[in-house]
Each structure stands twice: as C-alpha cells, then as structure tokens.
C-alpha cells in the first residue's frame, strides 16, 4: 500500500481536516450521555452528582433560564446530538470525497501507465482482466482510503473518549465488559488472514469472468457462425458457479466474523446488566450512571461492528492493490533513450543493418540488410509467416531491437524520441481497428488538428467519398464497435484515410488493400503515388498485381530476404517471386474460366 502515500500527501489537508471533524464529532457524541445521566439523577436529587467541570455551566444556565436542571440537561443533550450530526456529515464529506479524488487520480495514472506499455504487454494481457483491475480493484482500494481510514480513526477516537468516562463510572464493570472484546480481537486477527486469501481468489475469478464476457462480445459473429452459443453459455455458467463458490467461501468467513462481533457485544451487555444492575441495587451506582454507562457501551457497539468490516475492507484493498501493483511495476519495454534528441522533420531514408529479431525464443528475422531512399516505394511479399509484418512493425518501434540495426535519416531509431518517430510514420496495420465513433472522428484520429478540407481530401484519396455519401448521416455516421457496420474493404480504406491525413514522411501499408477490389485498389495506388512523391512508402502484400510497379520488391522466406529487385528482374530470375507470380496468374485464369462457364 506504500504506493498510495503520494496520493494521500496530495490531499493531506483534506485528511487532516477530516480527522479534526472526527475528533469534534466524537467529543459531542461522548459528552451527550453526561447530560442523560444528570437528567435522570435530577429526578432523585439525593443521588444527583454533577461533574465539577459542568457545575458552573449548569448553574449559570439554570439561573438565566429558570427552566430547571432537567430541562437544561435535555436541551444540552439535544445540542450535543445536533453538533454530533453536523460534524458527522463534515467528517464524511471530507474523508470520503478525498478518497474519491484519489480514486480519480489513481485511475488516471493507471490508464496513462497502460498507454505507455509496449505492444508486447498487450499480446499476453487479457482485456477483461485489465478492465476488472481498473474498476473493481480500484473501488476496493478506494474503500480503504475512504471508509477504511474514516472508520478506523472514528473507532480509535471513540475509544479514547469513551473508555476513560466508563472507567470513571466503574473500573471493574468496564474491565468485565471488555473481556469479551479482547477475545474477539484475537479471533478477528486470525479470520482476517482467511479473508485476505479468499478475497484475492474472488477478484481473480471476477477478472476471468470479465475476460470471458469481453471475448464473447467481441467475437459474437464467430460464435454465431459456428453455432457455439450453447457451449459458451455453459462455459460462462461454469465460471459464474466457481465465482459464487469462492464468494460463498469468503462470505462464510465474513459471516463468522460479524456474528462473533455481535455475540461479543451481546456478552458485554449481559455482563453490564448482571453486574451493573447489582451495583445499582446496592446503591454503589446511581441509575443515571448506569444509564450513561449503557449509552457509552452502545457508542462502542458500532465501532466494534465496524472493526470487522474495516478489517475486511483492508484485506480486500490489500489484495486489490497487489493486483494493481503488478501493472504499475511493469516497466515499458520500449521508451525514449536518455540520449534521444528531437527530430522535428524526417525525409524518410530508412537503413537496416544486419537485423535479427526474435519473439522470446523464436527467431523471426535473420540478417536483414536494406536501404530505402526518400521517395522510393518498397514492396514486401512472401508466404504467411515469412516475417513481413514483423519487419515493418520494427520501424516505428512497436517492437524493439538492439541499437545499431535500424536508422531513419542516418539517425539510430533509439536516438529519436518515440513521439517524433511515430508522428513521421503513417501506418495501416493488418488489424484495421476502428473506434465506435463517427467516420469523421475515426479519420481525425490520424491528426486531430486537421481542417475539414484535409479530412475530405484524405477520404477522397482513400476512395471512400462515394460510400460515405450513401450513409444516413454521411461523415457523421456512427460505425459501431470496431467498425462492425462497414465492409472489410471500407474498413481498410477508412484506415488508409486516417493514416494519410497527417501526410507522413513514411507510409507503411501492411496488407492494407487485401479486401479492396482491383479497380478501387488501382485508384487508391494512383492517388498515393501523388501523395508520396519524395516520401517513402513500404507496402506488404500477397498480391503481385498490387506491388508490381514498386521501385524495389523484397521477397521474404523464413525471416530472410530471399530475393530483391524490380518486377521484371525478379521474373527473369525464375525464382520464388516468379513462382508466386505464375501461381496467381493461374488462379486468376481458373477463376475467370469458372465465372465464364454457364451452370448446367
């Protein structure tokens, strides 16, 4: 929980003022039974004893008002209760609000930290688990900072005020009343350890449920296509059943704790009635003192009940904070070098020297050497798994390589701030993620400062203008989660518009035209040639037709550049590229023949 100390210091004045209100609230609360005692004993003047510190006040008020000691005592009791209520509200208003503000700051810092983590972290982290930590776990931590601190402080101050007053009335009765509470504290200490363990399991299982639900909602079309609804329902029901069982295991311990608290309070009241009643009967204690002692014991009932609840809050909060710390302590795998210098302008020259890269223990790229001059269009082809996407992902440092392998304008990429490097690159990845927002906002994601005419230009360059004109709200049409209302080709073209809006020095198209028809593809490429004049374009594709006019074509196989050259020179080599070209031509001829053959 040490990570929370800076946040507490940020709002330390709120907490200090809140603690002052705790003290004042308990002062008025503990003072009110004194006036109940005086009011009851005033009915039997022979047994009336007024504390020396209250005597002058009561006599002055009695002489001034003329309403008698009973009326004055009742009036002062009401005043104390009103003041108690005011400071109770003030206490909650400061401490609980402070915890909400810390929750706000902590959630913002957690989100910012997640944004700084590299892509590789999200390859293995479950989205539902991250969502559970940002919601459920953060709420548990906030409970520690709000109700946890407030009720702990209230319990300590209550005992500090009330216990001396109880001892003043009867030390022996106080000791007998507290014997069960001492036993209770030992039992609660043991039960809280069980709650901590079981609470952690509950939170982990809730994260599993969130992950399963998120995957089902995101992949609902696949589930329906394969008629797996019943299977997923059963699997989700199983997770829910496990979650209930874990919750019930924790509830049983919590129930035992709360029952123990109530039982202990009952035993304390029993001792009070048995021994305190005897003291009243033999005249050692007045009826007013007995009533006041009852009030004092009642004032400690809620703090004792809150003790079990607070311990449970701290145990759940501790388990939640451990899960949050796992994220906070994860360092970004990719960050700015301390030697990075700003690079406000980029020409687009890319140099790759002896590049070798591996995902964990699996080597994906080996001995890649390449020089791309500004204005060149470089195409990368190869079979699935040959390393094409990995190569282009290394240029904007979505994954990292050792220094000395990749250079932009002869500057080693680790010496370029990430913001400058990535602002110079417009990238259309294979996974064309679109936000559940309007078409306009999805395009503006590429450059939020772009003017309307620039947005329309980007959309027109991506050949989306005609499609958008047919949508009900035109450019303001909401496209649904991940662009679900768009076709595959429309998604790709919208992603292209987003990438080119910033007019990048380097444009990377990772199989970005695979879902676009041949005619539209040619139109887009023609538009891009004008845009990328004197800029660098890198295209990954499976279709030879798409990349045949490139200045340089790289043919990859098993993580290596097997062949390189122009379309004509590669065909003349009669190698892997030529074989891919001939196969695609054959496939096109077969498809054309099938389309031309009438059905019998």
Q: Please give the alpha-carbon distance between the first and last residues.
A: 76 Å
Task: Please state the average pLDDT score.
Answer: 80
| Helical content band | 55-70%
User: Radius of gyration from the CA trace?
Assistant: 37 Å
Lateral arrangement of strands in the main beta sheet: 6-7-8-3-9-10
The structural class is alpha/beta
Figure out the total of helices.
20
What is the CATH C-level name of the largest domain?
Answer: Mainly Alpha
**Number of strand elements:** 10
* Tally of domains: 3
CATH architecture annotation of the largest domain: Up-down Bundle
The SSE order reads: HHHHHHHHHHEEEHEEHEHHHHEHEHEEHH
**Major beta sheet, specifics?**
6 strands, mixed
- The parts where pLDDT drops under 50 for at least 5 residues are none
CATH topology of the largest domain: ABC transporter transmembrane region fold
Strand content: 5-15%
Quick one: CATH superfamily of the largest domain?
ABC transporter type 1, transmembrane domain
Question: How would you describe this protein?
Answer:
The protein is of the alpha/beta class and 600 residues long. It folds into three domains: 2-328, Up-down Bundle (ABC transporter transmembrane region fold), CATH 1.20.1560; 346-424 and 504-600, Rossmann fold (3-Layer(aba) Sandwich), CATH 3.40.50; 434-503, 3-Layer(aba) Sandwich (Rossmann fold), CATH 3.40.50. It is 64% helix and 10% strand. α4 (68-116) runs antiparallel to α6. The relative contact order is 0.08. The model has no long low-confidence stretch (mean pLDDT 80).
């Amino acid at each position: 929980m040490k990570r929370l100390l800076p946040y507490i210091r940020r709002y330390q004045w709120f907490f200090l003022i809140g603690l002052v209100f705790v003290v004042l609230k308990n002062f008025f609360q503990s003072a009110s039974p004194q006036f109940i005692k005086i009011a009851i004993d005033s009915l039997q003047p022979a047994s009336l004893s007024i504390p020396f510190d209250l005597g002058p006040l009561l006599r002055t008020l009695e002489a001034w008002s003329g309403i008698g000691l009973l009326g004055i005592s009742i009036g002062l009791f009401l005043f104390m209760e009103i003041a108690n209520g005011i400071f109770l509200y003030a206490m909650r208003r400061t401490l609980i609000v402070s915890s909400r503000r810390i929750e706000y700051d902590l959630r913002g810092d957690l989100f910012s930290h997640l944004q700084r983590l590299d892509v590789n972290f999200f390859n293995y982290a479950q989205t539902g688990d991250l969502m559970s930590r940002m919601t459920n776990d953060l709420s548990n931590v906030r409970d520690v900072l709000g109700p946890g601190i407030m009720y702990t402080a209230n319990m300590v101050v209550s005992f500090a005020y009330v216990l001396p007053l109880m001892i003043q009335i009867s030390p022996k009765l106080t000791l007998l009343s507290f014997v069960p509470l001492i036993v209770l504290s030992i039992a609660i200490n043991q039960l809280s350890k069980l709650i901590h363990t079981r609470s952690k399991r509950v939170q982990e299982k809730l994260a599993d449920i969130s992950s399963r639900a998120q995957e089902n909602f995101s992949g609902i079309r696949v589930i329906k296509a394969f008629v797996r609804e019943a299977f997923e329902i059963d699997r989700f029901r199983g997770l829910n059943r496990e979650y209930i069982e874990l919750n019930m295991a924790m509830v049983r311990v919590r129930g035992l704790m709360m029952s123990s608290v109530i039982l202990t309070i009952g035993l304390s009241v029993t001792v009070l009635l048995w021994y305190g009643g005897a003291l009243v009967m033999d005249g050692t204690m007045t009826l007013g003192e007995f009533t006041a002692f009852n009030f004092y014991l009642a004032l400690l009932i809620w703090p004792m009940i809150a003790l079990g609840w607070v311990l449970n809050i701290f145990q759940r909060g501790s388990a939640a904070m451990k899960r949050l710390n796992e994220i906070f302590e994860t360092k970004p795998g990719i960050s700015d070098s301390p030697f990075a210098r700003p690079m406000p302008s980029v020409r687009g020259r890319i140099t790759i020297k002896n590049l070798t890269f591996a995902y964990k223990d699996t080597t994906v790229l080996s001995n890649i050497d390449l020089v791309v001059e500004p204005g060149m269009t470089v195409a990368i082809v190869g079979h699935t798994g040959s390393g094409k996407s990995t190569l282009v992902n290394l240029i904007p440092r979505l994954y990292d390589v050792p220094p000395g392998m990749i250079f932009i304008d002869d500057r080693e990429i680790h010496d370029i701030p990430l913001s400058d490097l990535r602002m110079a690159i417009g990238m259309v990845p294979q996974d064309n993620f679109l936000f559940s927002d309007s078409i306009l906002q999805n395009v503006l994601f590429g450059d939020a400062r772009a003017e309307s005419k620039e947005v329309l230009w980007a959309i027109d360059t991506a050949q989306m203008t005609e499609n958008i004109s047919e949508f009900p709200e035109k450019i303001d049409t909401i496209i649904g989660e991940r662009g679900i209302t768009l076709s595959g080709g429309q998604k790709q073209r919208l992603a292209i518009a987003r990438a080119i809006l910033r007019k990048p020095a380097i444009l990377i198209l990772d199989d970005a035209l695979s879902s676009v028809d041949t005619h539209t593809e040619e139109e887009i490429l023609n538009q891009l040639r004008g845009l990328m004049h004197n800029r660098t374009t890198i295209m990954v594709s499976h279709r030879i037709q798409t990349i045949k006019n490139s200045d340089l074509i790289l043919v990859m196989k098993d993580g290596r550049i097997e062949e390189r050259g122009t379309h004509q020179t590669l065909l003349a080599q009669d190698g892997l590229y030529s074989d891919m070209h001939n196969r695609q031509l054959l496939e096109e001829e077969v498809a054309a023949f099938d389309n031309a053959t009438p059905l019998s």
